[in-house]
Amino acid sequence: MVPEFAILGHPNEGKSSVLSTLAEDDSVRVSPTPGETTACQSFPVLVDGVEMLRFTDTPGFQNPDRVLSELKNRFRNSLDPLKDFRLFAEKIPELADDRELLLPLARGAGILYIVDGSRPVRNVDRAEMEILRLTGKPRMAIINNKSNEHSFLSEWKLALRKNFNTYRLFNAHRATYAERIDLLEALKAIDQDWQDVLDTVLTTFKKDWQTRNSNTADIIIALLREAATLQLTETLASGTSPENARARLLQRYNKSLRDEEKNSHQAIKQFFKHNIFDYQLPPQSLVNEDLFAEKTWQILGLTKKQIVIAGGLGGAVLGVGLEAATFGHSLGIFTAVGTAAGALGAWVGGEKLSNSIEVLGLPLGGEQLRIGPTKSINLLFVLLNRSLLFYQHTINWAHGRRDYENVVEPDDESSGGMAFTSDWPAGKIQICQAFFKAAQKTGDIAGLEKKEQALKRLLLQTMDEIAQMS
Fold it and tell me: pTM of the predicted model, to two decimals?
């Protein structure tokens, strides 16, 4: 048996937003116009193609006083009042929505009653609650505040306790993964007969989440591996300006990394079912900063202390390369040649991070420019932190939200100025450094796989921590 829950309530109380968030389905139509839903529509929750749970959107109550009166008087002695009322209302146009919303209850669905706790309780709300109590169905109320007004919560809680097995506070626009799981856990308490099947559903959901995290870690590792090994060349034609060629090559290098990062983030977004709407990160998020912008390197790279630690662990990875004599002191092999001030401008401890483009003599007398692979592990830490930041935003973007352009998120990461890896000790940095060195070492596939597995375990641990803190 697939558990079904009907999403019920007054028009424009946020029913569709709650459904969209719980089902992780951003195809649910969410509109500020009340009364647009006129027919029940079910949204299955699938895991690996198997339906585990079903949420059904319903029209809002239109005539609760009339419905309550009929149930209490005309059908007070009925053995099946829902069935009898629906037969009675079939030929009464003004009861069409009320008849329709009772359909899933007539087939055994549980009740999720949605109210806007930012307004006072009205008589019409009391009528709706009494109707749902009379159905005898397992029922939970969800207080979904549509504004920051909280002065009516006590009044709502008192009214809901009289008519429902339990109630929960749940913000459909802010709910995290952990809060969705907590709400589903609470559903087990409203009917003992559903506990076993809901236990199975929750176990499957948690395993599915672990699979998504595992796939996300694989995507991030693939991005870091590509960044660690990226190397591009350009042949210098006769009469070509070396500096112009260097600028073009550097531009290609930058674009290649940005494209890889964008593709990785798109894949992560799809793992968490953000497919219909064009999800955008908040404007101030560091993931929207240019990958090579100074601010990105400052905040998301290694800290000064970690640079010292990494230098002690790996030596050459953060040491001065052979190009230093030509291009000045550096912490890697990026070049500032042909770039404007600030392009690739990363300042770590007052030193400018730069990279060389080597000029190689060719046997046939031509010359070739080459950029990469990078010698700076700091690039990998920047990409890693940006990916974790994207992951954090993605898992916490409720599917019921539709305010993609107007919302302003709290500027947590900018105000704190701290990367996810900023407090990592030497052991965790060493795992990253071992991966970095193995990725650049040719021929040792087994060694690279071992280092990737160690890094993946570290990423999974970090993602679990991010999910808990969010």
Answer: 0.79
Six-digit token string for 373 = 């692979």
Does residue 457 surpass a pLDDT of 90? yes
Q: Are 222 and 264 in contact (CB under 8 A)?
A: yes
Greatest mean pLDDT range, 102-111, 147-156, 198-207: 102-111
Mean per-residue pLDDT for 19-46?
Answer: 80
Q: Which residue has the tokens 């969209």?
A: 20
Q: Is the peptide bond before 373 cis (omega within 30 degrees of 0)?
A: yes
Could you give the CA distance from residue 366 to residue 364 in angstroms, rounded to a whole number?
A: 6
Q: Which long-range contacts (CB under 8 A, 24 or more apart) does 234-241 make?
A: 234/368, 234/369, 235/362, 235/366, 235/367, 235/368, 235/369, 236/359, 236/366, 236/367, 236/368, 236/369
In this prediction, what percent of the chain has a pLDDT beyond 90?
47
Amino acid at 248: R
Do residues 119 and 12 touch, judged by C-beta distance below 8 A? no
The tokens describing 263, both together, are 């593709």
* C-alpha to C-alpha distances, 60 to 26, 96, 162, 297, nearest whole angstrom: 20, 11, 21, 51
Q: What is the pLDDT of residues 280-315, one digit of tens each?
A: 655 556 666 777 777 777 778 888 788 777 766 654
CA-to-CA distance for 163 and 139, rounded, in angstroms?
A: 9
Q: Over the Cα atoms of the chain, what is R_g?
A: 29
For residues 210 and 464, give the distance between their C-alpha atoms in angstroms, rounded to a whole number.
Answer: 9
Question: What pLDDT score does 235 carry?
Answer: 79
Task: Please name which of 104, 114, 99, 97 lies closest in space to residue 42, comparing C-alpha atoms.
Answer: 104
Tell me where in the chain the CATH 3.40.50.300 domain(s) lie.
4-29+36-190
pLDDT computed for residue 362 by the predictor: 38
Structure tokens at 131: 């109707």
Q: In whole angstroms, give the CA distance from residue 235 to residue 248.
A: 11
Beta bridge pairs of residue 332: none
Residue pair 38/59 in contact (Cβ under 8 Å)? The answer is yes
Which tokens hold the place of 267? 């894949």
Residue 238, token pair as written in the block: 């006769």
Q: What rounded mean pLDDT belongs to the chain? A: 81
Per residue in 318-341, pLDDT tens? 333 323 222 222 333 333 333 322
- Please determine, looking at this structure, whether the domain spanning 4-29+36-190 carries the CATH number 3.40.50.300: yes
CB 61 within 8 A of CB 38: no
Looking at residue 300, its pLDDT comes to: 81
